[in-house]
Write a structure and sequence with these properties.
Layout (H helix, E strand, L loop, with lengths): L1 H19 L20 H8 L3 H9 L7 H10 L4 H10 L16 H9 L6 E3 L5 E4 L1 H6 L26
Antiparallel strand pairs: 1-2
């Protein structure tokens, strides 16, 4: 029963997003008068690189498996917001792809807290124990972290060294 509800939700959501997508904004030329709002099924299938039959089955809520690549392509063509994209993956029964990791960021409030704890040693680390921020007491305790050469790269691929916020 739950599977059927999920397929119906996926079908309904795809149909609503397709009908709300302007064909010109999707890269199609304006043509003669359209009988359907938004993109036609054929246009969306072509722009997404999937067959019309396969897309039609998705929109009909048929019992088929859909790949991450198909869902990603549909989200891209329909220019979904991050929230819509997340919903699409959820109703398709797929886990969201991992976000590309950028450099670690430490919130200013957390930085001020670390600095306020000086003369007590304090630091901020991520779940992989990469040192992201520390105060002067922590640096002195570990032999002058500010004077050490930064590592060439961390586990997340970021080449920036941990920072100490001066107060």
């Amino acid at each position: 029963m739950t599977d059927m509800v999920q397929r119906d939700e996926l079908a309904s959501f795809l149909r609503s997003r397709r009908e709300a997508t302007d064909p010109v904004s999707a890269g199609l030329r304006p043509g003669p008068r359209r009988r359907t709002p938004g993109l036609r099924r054929e246009e969306l299938a072509q722009l997404s690189g999937i067959s019309v039959t396969w897309y039609t089955w998705l929109e009909q809520g048929r019992r088929i498996s859909v790949s991450r690549q198909v869902i990603e392509s549909l989200a891209r063509v329909l220019r979904m917001t991050p929230a819509e994209r997340e919903h699409l993956f959820t109703v398709a029964g797929l886990a969201l792809p991992a976000q590309t990791a950028g450099p670690p960021v430490v919130d200013d409030t957390l930085r001020r807290l670390v600095d306020a704890l000086d003369p007590n040693p304090a630091f901020v680390a991520n779940p992989w124990w990469d040192l992201l921020a520390y105060n002067q007491a922590y640096s002195a305790l570990h032999g002058g972290l500010d004077d050490r050469r930064p590592p060439s790269a961390t586990c997340c691929g970021c080449s920036s060294p941990p920072t100490r916020h001066a107060t």
